[in-house]
Amino acid sequence: MKDKLYLDKYQLGIIINALMLFRNELIEKGEDITPINELILKALDINKKRFSCRGIR
Hints:
about 0% strand
């Protein structure tokens, strides 16, 4: 069962920003960033799907 989390554009932006900061910390430490990159791409994809068609309706 998947849980749903409803976010507005501002909240999603905060999450993406936090993930980017965490990614930068991992890069500085020389750790693997692949899982974070995948999560960032999913968040950006959600942002694109959810907010790009709003004005069309």
